[in-house]
């Protein structure tokens, strides 16, 4: 159920982490860089362990800096609670390994973050969990894949490389009354631009490494959902797999979230201009950006998302060689994987991240030879466009 708030999102992004009142009145959440916490006496230790008294025990089980980040994220996603963990993949694995047991089945989108895909495709079968990957841009494919043993529907929207969009309302309707947990990876949108929980999705996952942190200086993940599920996760896969976030990283994410809305506004504004520029450039075959009228799901994007985000992929007419040449010619755009930073990052999957993948398999995953991925930053967009122009025309 969605929460109700006195203040609007922009205000909450700045003020929502005030749950922890520190002793000295520091404006910012202190970094509680401590692995363990001291008990006054043996009775207090016992009471904390059996949950009769609130309070901290050991940082893998909870820490005040982590806790402020969790409260902040639950607040922004409109959820009851959240858990902060050490990476986006720690978030994905803690959730699915809790929800799925031997013999269970999951329906997952066929366009997923690479490591999420390998976890589902290569590791989960080792635990006798069956996963069906379907093209979720057609909800009927999801409907047809459901079995009696289906426990989870896993979505990522928009998703690389074509920035295809899944209609989350349809997913919620399909799962309704079936005892299926719906999960959405909301990394590309952040809660500022898309709030799946408010649409009825059960669990949201983030790689906080990306837009939430926003500065390319930390790795983290967040799980958001009901109080009941968060309690269950804390007592199982989060505590026992132990992929927790350190207090300093939690602090950096709290700091990043303060400026989330202004960064996202600028990134979206820049991305719209850069996508248009690319669409009109003679070296470019095709641009994938949900904000372009030419995107096949532009109207769904407008309905479901607050804005269109900062990820653009485009296909160069010159294929593999043109992609490689552009990578080696850019001077301002930074040649790096990851996304969501203040700097514009550029990547050519065929010659970089997917170099070892055989061309036929690459094509099947939509990674064509001339495909370039751009994570738009907050620079002056003219400078980025000039850099891309000189890189493509050199
Ligand atoms: C980066 C990313 C992940 C994994 O997050 P890490 O923080 O790198 O573990 C998961 N999903 C999406 C969409 C991502 O972009």
From TrEMBL:
<dbReference type="GO" id="GO:0005737">
    <property type="term" value="C:cytoplasm"/>
</dbReference>
<dbReference type="InterPro" id="IPR006237">
    <property type="entry name" value="L-Met_gamma_lys"/>
</dbReference>
<dbReference type="InterPro" id="IPR015421">
    <property type="entry name" value="PyrdxlP-dep_Trfase_major"/>
</dbReference>
<keyword id="KW-0663">Pyridoxal phosphate</keyword>
<dbReference type="GO" id="GO:0047982">
    <property type="term" value="F:homocysteine desulfhydrase activity"/>
</dbReference>
<dbReference type="InterPro" id="IPR000277">
    <property type="entry name" value="Cys/Met-Metab_PyrdxlP-dep_enz"/>
</dbReference>
<dbReference type="InterPro" id="IPR015424">
    <property type="entry name" value="PyrdxlP-dep_Trfase"/>
</dbReference>
<protein>
    <recommendedName>
        <fullName>L-methionine gamma-lyase</fullName>
        <ecNumber>4.4.1.11</ecNumber>
        <ecNumber>4.4.1.2</ecNumber>
    </recommendedName>
</protein>
<dbReference type="Pfam" id="PF01053">
    <property type="entry name" value="Cys_Met_Meta_PP"/>
</dbReference>
<dbReference type="GO" id="GO:0018826">
    <property type="term" value="F:methionine gamma-lyase activity"/>
</dbReference>
<feature type="modified residue" description="N6-(pyridoxal phosphate)lysine">
    <location>
        <position position="210"/>
    </location>
</feature>
<keyword id="KW-0456">Lyase</keyword>
<dbReference type="InterPro" id="IPR054542">
    <property type="entry name" value="Cys_met_metab_PP"/>
</dbReference>
<comment type="similarity">
    <text>Belongs to the trans-sulfuration enzymes family. L-methionine gamma-lyase subfamily.</text>
</comment>
<dbReference type="GO" id="GO:0019346">
    <property type="term" value="P:transsulfuration"/>
</dbReference>
<dbReference type="GO" id="GO:0030170">
    <property type="term" value="F:pyridoxal phosphate binding"/>
</dbReference>
<dbReference type="InterPro" id="IPR015422">
    <property type="entry name" value="PyrdxlP-dep_Trfase_small"/>
</dbReference>
